[in-house]
Design a protein that fits this description.
Strand content: 35-45%
Strand order of the largest sheet: 4-3-7-8
Helix content: 10-25%
Number of strands: 9
CATH superfamily: Carboxypeptidase-like, regulatory domain
CATH class: Mainly Beta
């Protein structure tokens, strides 16, 4: 009988320690990133940019990286992803940083970064058409274009859970 009591006691001790650290045993899905999509266009001609390499990097309490290429219409779409967790933290969610890097032949690389202080969001940032700067443009001309446009998306519209 003493042996049977020992195992519930161990579980009770483990749960007590986790609770003191702000953790609760509760299997759940945690968002890694929302669905992120848009279209790449040339800042010079407005034509779609096909075959561009896109890398989406998500850094929170864990890091994830995804790659794809834009289609013939310049469109790209990263699927929403979740991660299953056994424990939930009762304290604030970790900061989430999402970075999108775009590289296409004949264009300057483009970087977009979004941050959320309350975990990774579940809503899609509204990207729409993302303009790529031709490689032959000088810095002054590129800066003038980017000064008149938001950098990828307005951070105020990217809400967290």
């Amino acid at each position: 009988m003493n042996r049977h009591l020992r195992y519930p006691t161990r579980w009770s001790c483990l749960l007590a320690v986790l609770a003191l650290q702000g953790c609760v045993l509760a299997p759940h899905a945690t968002p890694i990133n929302p669905a992120i999509g848009g279209r790449l266009v040339s800042a010079e001609s407005g034509q779609p940019v096909q075959g561009a390499a896109l890398v989406l990097e998500v850094a929170s309490d864990r890091s994830h990286s995804y790659e794809l290429r834009s289609d013939s219409q310049g469109r790209f779409a990263f699927a929403a992803r979740d991660d299953w967790r056994l424990f939930t933290v009762l304290a604030d969610a970790p900061m989430c940083i999402v970075a999108l890097t775009v590289e296409a032949q004949g264009y300057q690389p483009r970087h977009c970064v979004w941050m959320s202080r309350n975990g990774c969001p579940t809503q899609t940032p509204p990207i729409g058409d993302l303009k790529l700067i031709p490689a032959q443009w000088n810095d002054h001309r590129a800066d003038a274009l980017l000064a008149n446009a938001s950098d990828c998306v307005d951070p105020a519209t990217w809400t967290s859970r």
